[in-house]
Amino acid sequence: MNRPRHIRRYIVAVVAIAVLAAALNPWTLSFAPRWLDVGRPRQKADAVVLLNGGYDTRPFVAAALVHGGWAPKVIFCTVAPHAAQTAGAVPPSSEIVLKVLRYGGVSGESQVTLLDAKATTTFDEAKAVAGYLAEHPARRLLIVTEGPHTRRAEWIFRQVLADRPVEIVMISAPTEGFDPAAWWRSEAGFLFVVSEYFKLFYYALRYGWLGYELLTALVAIVLLRAWFRRRRKPDCMGKAQAGPA
Fold it and tell me: What kind and span of H or E run contains 169?
């Protein structure tokens, strides 16, 4: 008998059981979005950078920061137009953001800076902000996005602005459509959290090594996949027992 091979199989089996047990633990599941959220308390800054998306929450948070005196202005980027916008069926996202900012008391020209970036990714937005900082240096930026998006967004901005002496402070906007403490109970929450881990993995492959973040993302994906397969099994069995109506 090949004892070293037998020992390796035993170790793999033990690790697999430990991973599955962790995947079924509610604390592990609730930790997944908490690890993604690197938001910090609000601080005085030179500007608020509003990332596109989450129009029900992000622009309101940005407006509140400026209106509350934490920063003098909001910076955000235009988004590449999609088919519905080109056809005139929906307004540009920048118009929606501007209306929300005005609703929140931010309307002066000196309070809003719109960068014509036609962005499609967070990387595009970071590059546009870097170009803006070349002519308008800043010491600190408050970057607003949903909590589960803050870790990846922070990494992107730190990479793009690495050669600039600016402090990045992530501000977590509320996540609409699901409770981060029970994200797996809704389709929106499941898709949001899992997609963020997959995007971390993708960015690590395309843009550079994320170190411990990549390792943790891979482990989390395994845990989430194990949990999801377990979740589907009882549903399928229940339908099989019920039979056709």
Answer: strand 167-173
Q: Classify residue 15: in a domain, yes or no.
A: no
Task: Answer with the residue of higher pLDDT: 136 or 201.
Answer: 136
Distance between CA atoms of 59 and 53, rounded to whole angstroms?
Answer: 9
- Contact predicate 95/201, CB 8 Å: no
Instruction: Tell me which residue range forms the domain holding 84.
Output: 47-171
Q: Model confidence over 184-241: pLDDT tens digits? A: 788 888 888 888 888 887 777 777 655 555 555 566 665 566 566 556 555 544 444 4
The CATH number of residue 73's host domain is 3.40.50.620
In a domain, 28, yes or no: no
Residue whose structure tokens are 């929300």: 100
pTM: 0.77
DSSP annotation of 244 reads -
- Residue-by-residue DSSP string for 26-45: HHHHHHHHHHH---------
